[in-house]
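User: I'm curious whether this sequence folds into something compact or stays loose and floppy. Could you predict its structure so I can see for myself?
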Amino acid sequence: MKLIIAILLIFFLQTVNSKNISIDLIKNKSEKEKITQKIEKNYKDAFVSNSQIFEMTYFKTQFFIAAVMEFGGDKPRGCYVQKLDSNYELQEFLPAASIEDQSCSAILAIYACENDKFVGVGSISQMKFGANNFHPQGAFFNINSNFEMQENKKLSEKLEVIGTVKEAKKELECH
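Assistant: Here's the prediction. I'll summarize afterward.
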């Protein structure tokens, strides 16, 4: 009887884990292409290409992407954070930092912390906080509940290139 319960428990845990999409999906190139194509098809007014979706993260049944997008009107070309629904459709526009066009060539990433707070890290040549406040490469920033970037006390110049989520998380303070 104990063996049967143990087997059922293992099966249940595997089922739950399979439904909870892994963060490894960020590195899945074909999945990234599929999402990109869906976005391009549904949102022709926003400029998004495969090379310009920097990072995707999955948190509490929501996908978030950090990408270079081009909007008309008061939303110029820049790096924005976008929320996707379960069908990979843009559910909500989340205003992040206004980052200059030439600065969107490196990594912009967002990460979900265990305490429901979001932290971001960028290896971008200039990140704009407020009117005239720029930081050099490797600036940390927090994302508040409105998904607006807030300046973090901890800044680091060594984050010029961040290759993986694992490496970045070592540097992040999730509190």
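Summary: Residues 5-26, 47-52, 93-149, 152-175 have pLDDT under 50 and may be disordered. The chain has one domain: 23-171.
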